[in-house]
Amino acid sequence: MKLSIILAPYDSGHYHSGFGRGPEAIIAGGLVDFLAAIKRI
User: Model's pTM, two decimal places?
Assistant: First the structure.
């Protein structure tokens, strides 16, 4: 299965801090590597 990840930014009023880190933090946290590892199982 092919999967595309689309980042949709949002504003919490605190750019790049806490909740304001948003989707970029999820990607930086290893989501792509995690999904690739699951695919190999």
Answer: 0.60
